[in-house]
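task queued by scheduler; priority normal; single chain, no ligands, no partner chains; default sampling; output format set to structure tokens
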Amino acid sequence: MEFELPTAGIDVAKPGLLPRATLFTNPVLKQDFAVMNLTAGFSFDPSKVEVALKYFGHVKFKGTPNDLIGFEFGFIQFMAHTTTKVIYLGQQPSDGHIVVDIGQLIGTLPILDAFPTSKLPFMRPPAFTEFDGEITSSGGDHPVLSIQTRLTNTTTGASNMLFQVKDFRRVISIFSVRSPTKFVRHFAHLPWTLNYDLEFGITDGDLVVRRNSSLFKDDPVVLGPPTKRTIPGLGFPGEAPKGPPLSGEVAKAALKNAFTQGNKARTDANGYPPGAPADFVFTLQSTFVP
């Protein structure tokens, strides 16, 4: 049995994909949150969030369907959090500001991205279909970020509201196969970028999105594997990528710890940072650049 490597590829579908922030009150915690999401497939129930980005790997082979017994096809994914920072402002400069640099606790290196219930190193449990000598395997993702909209500034004692979110991610999704002998081959890979980049303000007492410069971009599909220089944890040819830790678990732990008072990722300070609006409540736009 032989794979026809020049026929490999990945098709991408993203109907309704639009980065945004959704504001809501958690009825259990009785706290307000902003959830950065991709619109399509979003649900307030994390267990019901569906993929917004869908990708379909395909490759032709020479042989019979019986030759495929024991082979596992699917997507192996790596995610790098290049920036993850949240900024809060008081109603006026004397109320201070808070910076939570979650990225300090995550790091910027690509990390294997998979659901804990998957069959590692695949992002989701491997599966495929075969028709007329071509193998197809599907995957998808919907990265979200849920952030509290209100914190108490421990330096000023005042309430600070969410002002800015910058969550920039670089992702590589790899269409791969693992043989019955555990040899791993990467057919093609899809690089893509997701930047949640939003600014908030207060109008008539309510937190609203004032600016949404968020971006999703999928780059051209590349045949073969990414380089080890791009993804240090990819492993040598034939090896399975290294993991855990898994990207989701690292990010979850960072989110839990970064907002804790006294954590190195959190800074509660007097005044406003340079470039922030002089009046957070009524200024509609700002030139703030962290």
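post-processing summary
- Residues 282-290 have pLDDT under 50 and may be disordered.
- The chain has two helices and 17 strands.
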